[in-house]
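## retry 2 of 3
previous attempt timed out at serialization; input unchanged, resubmitting
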Amino acid sequence: MTTRAERRPNHRLASLVEEAGFSHAGLARRVDQLGAEQGLDLRYDKTSVARWLRGQHPRGIVPILLAEVFTQRLSRKLSAEDLGMAGCRPDYAGLEYAAGPAEAVEIVSGMWQADSAHRPALVEAAFTPGALVVPSRDWLIGAADEEPKRADGIRVGGGDVAAVRAVGEAFRRLDNSFGGGHARQALVRYLDTEVATMLRGTYSGRVGCELFAAAAVLTRLVGWMAYDVGVHGMAQRYFVQALRLAQASGDRALGAYVLATMSRQAVYLGHGREAVQLARVAQQGALAVATPRVRVLLHAVEARGHGLLGDGRACLAAVVRAEQAFGQAGAPEE
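## retry succeeded, writing output
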């Protein structure tokens, strides 16, 4: 939070309040309502808004909630930075859902770099259940990205993407055999030194889609490794960025798989309602492309969320859907 000496009137926020037609009390009430939808007990009022306009930065996830309130009211995507709240960025760095592929590369590569350098802010970041709604919503209803192609930097071809996939498979086997703590930092360094350079390189639209998908897979994996060793705030941030990379690739089934991973984490941390929401968003968003095996996973994670909430009927219904999908999946491949 900014100190009293550093505060300056927040003209960006004032302009948006005027444009949106919010009263101070009305804006505070909407932030409280949005927080309640995410399981947060917020009690802001018109005095709180007056302090924000004078330059005080609200704590934690509240800048994200404010940005979401204005996004809904003005029907255009806004970030906390657009509200003049860039100074509180460390509280939620990595939870942003980028407006486009280029911004997604900058966010995730910044995370890889910070992680590779062992910066404490990323390691110490808290898991924030309220930050799950915007990424999942934007993945579900956001406009499709154009194919991510670039004409600057090193040339990247299909063989380079195949190499990224092979590296990812090697790290996946290491994770399965020895656990996430064994090779996570090595994977982070590979992402930071190799994959980030490729994403900023020269490639066609087709190769770009494949590259973003491969980067999404590795980013989800490094998040899973963080989850495996109990660093849940970091894991959440990697999952959010993996989802954005998957969206840029155009691979809806991959995005659904990332959402299923996020749902599993939510269950593990005791957030059943969020787990169910994530699973259902994944089902809806990948309805046309999900294979029976993917549907098994999505219904199973939904069932776990219902079970955590104590909703036996909904849990059983999700289990039945998972069993039906399993019956359609056929024998596993060798």
